[in-house]
Amino acid sequence: MSQLQYTRREVAMDGASTYGILSLIPVLVVIVSAIITKRALEPLILGTLVGFVILAKQNFIVAYLDSLYGELGESAYYVVVFGLFGIYIHLLERANAISGFTKLGLKFATNKKKTGLLAWIMGIIFFLDNYFSILGAGVSNRKIADENKMSREMFAFEINSVACCTCILIPLSLWGVFMSGQLETTLGLEAGQGLQEVIKAIPFMFFAFVLLIFVLLYQFRIIKPFGLMKKAELRAEQTGKLLPEDLEEEADENENKKDVNILNFLIPMVALIVVTLVFQELLYGLIVGIVICFLMYIPQKLVGFTEAFDSIAKGFEEMFGVTAIVISAFVLQNANDELGLAPFVVNSVVDIITAPLLPVIAFIILMILGFVTGSFWGMAAVCFPIMLPLAQALDANLYLVIGAVIAGCAAGSATCFYGDSVTLTCGSIAKIRNIDYLRTSLPMLVPPIIVTIIFYLIAGFIF
């Protein structure tokens, strides 16, 4: 995503007023009500309203609407990107353009383990951005996963996990660009020097390495899925029902269509990659990819002229739920910012931090803040100016702390069930609900998080 879109969400820490423990109430309301209702949008709205009740008392409706109106204007970028996301996926599906890749992929992915490996590799290949990884790996592998009876819950877990890890381990990603800029600002470096510091911190981004390995361990059944994920996998294997029991399987409109040339998928995707890489902006890549789909599919009669242009409206329509959840999460973040949630969490532990404990505390704080706010880059912008000077003052390993902060952001992105990454994965790719991800994937993330915490504890005393 564009750096501008995230830096506008920075939260001032020095002298920030907080509401203390009351700042935790809106987030708790969201989590508890989401578990009870099995929905995401309504709990987000409810939690936000509770936040504004604390802030504005009887004027909470006015305060909420003011925040919502302001967010709708500031979040126009997301509305456009998500809409283009929907258009691009809709065109690929209507043209059956993925069938050529699916046919080729099924020659390798003859079972669920190989399917998991292929999706893992594809997620890494599309490294430019977590959105991009979700799009590329998700669209290209969903049909293959379906054919091999992988539950959509497991598919969503893998796609989102790999996306959250890859984009921080490869510094050419948009995450790398943003983090480099944050380091230059915080450490007073010259333009371009921040990237060198990010590269030096990559070996210490333990969570990304650990989660990538755990994804493979789960897929190869070296560690068997457990809890509700185990039930989801058994359901898919034994009954062939890929979606949760209370969701209807979508009709496959391309079931009787002939497979099309693989170039109908590769050319738009390669163009999307190249343009995104050159301009460091996914929005431009999506526009070019959509235009190329029009130029290729209409002459081949894979989609009709009217149908192609109807996809513009349908793409935005199909992404409405995703957009509503993400914008609602941003409004909740506004309430959290005014309540001083981030300063409260950081200030609660800053007095007990020592040099050996700083890396693990930095990781845990960024993960928690990312999970409860859904703002991963925003929390990095908040915490870098605190954690890095603290590391220098305590004579802690600077690169270990940088790696812990960035890894904490990735962990927040992987765990936050109403964050943009999970919402895109569930809504546009896996076609499941965010709460399905929370109930099945969050427990699967606990073991890699525990291992990561142990690594940071050990590293803090060694390095």
Put the structure in a nutshell.
This is Na+/H+ antiporter NhaC-like C-terminal domain-containing protein. With 463 residues, the protein is mostly helical.
Task: Please give a structural write-up.
- By secondary structure, the chain is an all-alpha fold.
- It has a domain at 77-246 and 255-316.
- 75% of the residues lie in helices and 0% in strands.
- It has helices at 3-7, 25-37, 41-56, 60-74, 76-94, 99-108, 112-125, 130-147, 152-169, 174-187, 193-201, 206-219, 227-239, 263-279, 282-297, 305-318, 320-339, 341-349, 358-373, 376-394, 398-415, 420-430, 434-462.
- Helix 3 (41-56) runs parallel beside helix 17 (320-339), helix 7 packs antiparallel against helix 12 and helix 8 (130-147) runs antiparallel to helix 9 (152-169).
- The protein starts with a helix and ends with a helix.
- The chain crosses the membrane at residues 16-37, 44-65, 77-96, 117-139, 159-178, 198-220, 265-298, 400-419, 440-462.
- It is found in: Cell membrane.
- Residues 182-461 form the Na+/H+ antiporter NhaC-like C-terminal domain.
